[in-house]
Amino acid sequence: MAQGGLYSIVPVQEKDADDVMKLLKRTFFLDEPLNKAVGLCSSETDPCPELEEYCSHSLMEGLSFKAIDHEENIVGVMISGVCPLKEDENGNDLLSQALKCQNPKFQKILHILARRETGARLWERFPHEETLVEVKVAATDHRWRRKGIMNALLKATEKATLQRRIRLIRMDTSSAYSAMSAERHGYTCVYSALYRDIKLDGQPLIVPEPPHNEDRVYVKMLFEQESISVG
Ligand SMILES: CC(C)(COP(=O)(O)OP(=O)(O)OC[C@H]1O[C@@H](n2cnc3c(N)ncnc32)[C@H](O)[C@@H]1OP(=O)(O)O)[C@@H](O)C(=O)NCCC(=O)NCCS
């Protein structure tokens, strides 16, 4: 899928794992608004095993896409996976993970992610769905930003989700720009909180720089039951 001859969007393959991680370490690890505000990594060589595990987890489920330039360098990535609507109650839910986390910076992020679950309550909104596809990570190389790569990656993810016959897609946004992408694609916001109001023990957990003021969960129902069209 050529995009004006600048880049192409193709599925992530096993051979891409190292290059995807390199891209994430020089982008997402440093400048995703929550990671940046909490100072999760100070440089692209600074390790964060918790975030590496989070990013690697769904990479090979066949729902992740990369943007490549004409030399096949990876210049953008979107990582997605199939998830239940309700977290497991086996002690591995996000709040339990937050309480057990040994990395105090990552722990704050996990608390914010846990609030999304109780704020969005997707299992109550969509009682007939068992699974959804969740967009977990989106990152574009600095030199390639604002060229529509995230929008194109989201479109490819939606198409792959349709092909799996999964109706619901979810994208949580800490970045005002990924929220814009969700809005452009017709997603509905089902949870929104100002970072300054997301508190633990009376103190805001993390307050990123403007314009990244709100934490949001977006969803989109891709098709009504019994009317699937993959175009
Ligand atoms: C968020 C991110 C992935 C967007 O990638 P991108 O390829 O530049 O996004 P796109 O060019 O497809 O733009 C998506 C939307 O955001 C808008 N946007 C992107 N960057 C913007 C900026 N700096 N200022 C204003 N709007 C911006 C675009 O105009 C577009 O909205 P539109 O479709 O209504 O015009 C990229 O900024 C990034 O890697 N950030 C660091 C990691 C991160 O925050 N990931 C997302 C976490 S939820």
Which key features would you list for this structure?
single chain, two-stranded antiparallel ribbon, alpha+beta, globular, 231 residues, binds coenzyme A, 25% strand, Aminopeptidase
Molecular structure report:
It is a single chain. The protein has 231 residues and is of the alpha+beta class. It is 35% helix and 25% strand. The protein has a single domain, classed as Aminopeptidase (3-Layer(aba) Sandwich), CATH 3.40.630.30. A hairpin with a 5-residue loop joins strand 3 and strand 4. The mean pLDDT is 95. The structure holds coenzyme A.
Helix-strand blueprint:
Blueprint: E1 2-3, E2 7-11, H1 17-26, H2 28-31, H3 33-38, H4 49-57, E3 65-68, E4 74-84, H5 94-100, H6 104-120, H7 122-125, E5 131-140, H8 149-163, E6 168-173, H9 176-184, E7 188-194, E8 199-200, E9 203-204, E10 214-221
Parallel strand pairs: 5-6
Antiparallel strand pairs: 1-2, 2-3, 3-4, 4-5, 6-10, 7-10, 8-9
Helix pairs in contact: 5-6
The structure holds coenzyme A.
Q: What is the structure about, briefly put?
A:
With 231 residues, this protein is an alpha+beta fold.
Strand pairing plus helix content: what structural class? alpha+beta
The CATH homologous superfamily is named Gcn5-related N-acetyltransferase (GNAT)
Count of helical stretches: 9
The CATH topology corresponds to: Aminopeptidase
The coarse overall form would be globular
**CATH class assignment:** Alpha Beta
Unreliable runs: none
Do you know the CATH architecture? 3-Layer(aba) Sandwich
Overall average residue pLDDT? 95
Measured by DSSP, the beta-strand proportion falls in 15-25%
Looking across the biggest beta sheet, what order are the strands in? 1-2-3-4-5-6-10-7
- Report the major sheet: 8 strands, mixed
Total DSSP E strands = 10
The ligands found in this model are:
coenzyme A
